[in-house]
Specification:
Blueprint (H helix, E strand, L loop, with lengths): L6 E2 L7 E8 L4 H6 L5 H25 L4 E4 L1 H6 L1 H9 L3 E4 L12 H16 L7 E2 L10 H7 L4 E2 L10 E9 L3 E12 L9 H4 L12 H18 L4 E6 L1 H4 L2 H16 L2 E3 L2 H7 E2 L3
Length: 284
Amino acid sequence: MPQVSGKVKIPKGKKVAVNIGCDFDAQAIWIGSFNLTSPAYMSRGEFGAEVAVPRLLKLFDKHKIKTTWCIPGHTVDTWPELCREIRSAGHEIGHHGYVHENPTPMSLAEETKVMQMGLEALSRIGVKPRVYRSPYWDFSPNTLSILEEYGFSADSSLMGNDFHPYVIRRVETHADRGNVFGSSSKVLEIPVSWYLDDFPPEEYITGKQEGMNPALGIFDRWKAIFDYALANETGACYVVTTHPQTIGRAHMISRLEELIEYIADKGAWFATLGEIYDATEIPK
């Protein structure tokens, strides 16, 4: 069964749907993904919350942009007032695990528990999410069925397209062919890309990740990807993934503002993932 992708109905006068995503991981990414809990790594999460989030909220308010914040439950429980401030500013909040766990090795029971813990944390700040983003940008064999069970409209973790939302298909295992795509889900994928993510090229992790690449090179790539969508794709979405503790640094947030101004001038429609879902037309 071939992939079924759709086009985003862009408002009149705009040309490309743009989502700026803020994965507000704070300490959770260091605890859950890297098992790094020393004061140095905890302070990087602290910077993301205490310094970077206010900077980003101020920037988005200046440019009248609504964004999507994917927030682990641990971050909600650690920084509840800050998360309420994000919600109160009109930004969308999506589910992003509890302590930034890798779902791929989990049992169904374990992954369901993480889903419930994240939902319970978000409910404490008055959020019932429509959108899920896997902390690892990956699914276990059970993730899709869990998203369906809990009524999620959209996911933004996979990479089967670069500019067009598409219907997620189940992966089925056959003795003669191995893993192949099978039946379609009701969950819409709003695709991401490592090329549009700030964390891998920028974050230095001792012994694991070099990081600290020149910011201008990253943003030149981000502009080039937008320009391609603008010139070649109709009804496209362009999904940037940022992390407050990364993008909120002085040299990075300055470049982010330049990117916002650049793509706004070229016809960007800044939208939440939920708004992109609502505007996506899937062929019957």
